[in-house]
Design a protein that fits this description.
The protein is an alpha/beta fold. The chain has 2 domains: 222 residues, Periplasmic binding protein-like II (D-Maltodextrin-Binding Protein, domain 2); 94 residues, D-Maltodextrin-Binding Protein, domain 2. 40% of the residues lie in helices and 18% in strands. It is built from 14 helices and 11 strands. A 6-stranded mixed sheet has the order 2-1-3-10-4-11, with helices on both faces. Strands 7-6-8-5-9 form a 5-stranded mixed sheet, sandwiched between helices.
C-alpha cells in the first residue's frame, strides 16, 4: 500500500497553481494540531545507496531530527545503483531516491525528475587487473560493467577519448556486487566501478590498476549526484516536495560545515567504521545550499546536465537532448526554505 504522502501546506512559492493539487488517491493531511496539540506526520519512502555520498544526508537528517522538524517520517530503502532506484520510483516503492550521475539519462528520458543536486562526484574509475596498463591492453578482454550507472558512463567517455568502442571488449553486464566478486576472483580483467567498492577490491587486489577517473574529463564534464522523484511529483504533491527539499538543504549545510561529524553519523547509519567513511568523503565535491541555489539560477547546473545529455545521446541512451528545465525542478529547489 502506498503511504499517505500529503502534509501541511508550506505555501505555494514557485510551484504555481498546479502544484497545489493533492496526489491522486491521497487525502490531504490536516495541518492543524489535534486535541493533544500534535500535528500530522507524513511518511516518505527514501531510497539511498550505502556509501558516504548516497547516505550522508539521510544520516544527518536523522541525527539532527530534521525530518521531524519538517513533518516527515522517513522509511529507508537501500539500492545498489541508480537505475534500480528509478525503477522503484515508477512502481511506487519509493517516493524520493538518490542516484549518481550515470543514471541521469533516466530523468533526461522522462523516467524521473530531479529535485536537488547532492554533490559532484569523483568516485568512478575504470580499473584493470595487474599487468593491464591501458584500455588498449584490455582489448578483447572481459570487462564488468553495471549497465546505466556512473561507471558505465565513465567507460563510454574513456572509450570515445581513446578511439575505441565497447565492441572492442567482452563487456559483461553485472550488478555492482557481482563486479566486485568477479574482479576479486580474477574472472574479469577490467571493470567500470566506483569507490567505496574499489576500496573493498584493493583489500584483495592491492596491485589493481586505475586506468581512468572522473577528473580526466573535468574540462568537459561535471558529474553531479542528485535526488529524484517520479516525473510530475513536485507539481502533484508540492507540500511533500518542499518539505523534503527543506530537509535536504539543512542536512547539506550541516554536512558542509561539519564534515567529521557527518562522517561519524554516516558510519553509524550504515553500521560501518568511521575510517571507511573518511576515505569515501574524499571523492565528493560539496557545495552549500546557497551555492547550489546560485548555480541553479545562473544556469550552471543546467550546463552540467546538458553536457551529460550530449554524452548520453552519443551513447544511444537517449534519443534527443532536452532542456534540463523539463526534468529538473529548479524553481522548487530555489524556493524551498532551509528546514
Amino acid at each position: 500500500m502506498r503511504a499517505n504522502l500529503s502534509r501541511r501546506s508550506f505555501g505555494q512559492l514557485a510551484f504555481g497553481a498546479a502544484a497545489t493539487a493533492a496526489l491522486a488517491g491521497c487525502s490531504k493531511a490536516d495541518s492543524t494540531p489535534d486535541a493533544a496539540g500534535k500535528r500530522s506526520v507524513s511518511e516518505i519512502k527514501v531510497g539511498y545507496i550505502a556509501d558516504y555520498n548516497g547516505a550522508g544526508l539521510m544520516a544527518v537528517a536523522d541525527q539532527e531530527k530534521l525530518w521531524e522538524k519538517n513533518g516527515l517520517k522517513p522509511a529507508y530503502i537501500p539500492f545498489t545503483n541508480g537505475p534500480l532506484s528509478i525503477q522503484a520510483l515508477g512502481t511506487g516503492n519509493v517516493d524520493v531516491a538518490y542516484i549518481g550521475s550515470g543514471a541521469l539519462w533516466l530523468p533526461a528520458s522522462g523516467k524521473a525528475e530531479i529535485w536537488a543536486v547532492n554533490s559532484v562526484s569523483n568516485a568512478d574509475r575504470v580499473i584493470a587487473q595487474s599487468g593491464f596498463n591501458s584500455l588498449q591492453d584490455l582489448k578483447g578482454r572481459k570487462v564488468g560493467v553495471p549497465a546505466g550507472t556512473s561507471g558505465d558512463q565513465l567507460l563510454g567517455l574513456a572509450l570515445k577519448k581513446a578511439g575505441l568502442s565497447k565492441s572492442d571488449f567482452d563487456i559483461v553486464s553485472m550488478d555492482p556486487s557481482t563486479v566486485v566478486s568477479a574482479f576479486a576472483a580474477g574472472q574479469i580483467d577490467g571493470a567500470a566501478i566506483w569507490y567505496p567498492l574499489i576500496d573493498t577490491l584493493k583489500q584483495r587486489k592491492p596491485d589493481l590498476k586505475e586506468l581512468v577517473k572522473n577528473e580526466d574529463f573535468i574540462d568537459e564534464f561535471t558529474f553531479p549526484s542528485t535526488f529524484v522523484a517520479q516525473s510530475g511529483r513536485a507539481a502533484k504533491d508540492a507540500d511533500l516536495a518542499q518539505s523534503f527539499l527543506s530537509v535536504i538543504k539543512a542536512a547539506n549545510d550541516y554536512r558542509h560545515e561539519n564534515q567529521d561529524k557527518t562522517i561519524t553519523a554516516t558510519a553509524a547509519f550504515l553500521k560501518l567504521k568511521p575510517e571507511d567513511m573518511k576515505a569515501q568523503a574524499g571523492v565528493a565535491k560539496l557545495f552549500t545550499s546557497a551555492e547550489l541555489e546560485d548555480l541553479t539560477k545562473n544556469g550552471t547546473v543546467d550546463k552540467w546536465f546538458r553536457a551529460l545529455e550530449e554524452q548520453f545521446k552519443t551513447d544511444g541512451k537517449i534519443p534527443e537532448v532536452k532542456d534540463p528545465k523539463s526534468f529538473y525542478t529548479a524553481d522548487a529547489y530555489v524556493a524551498a526554505p532551509k528546514g
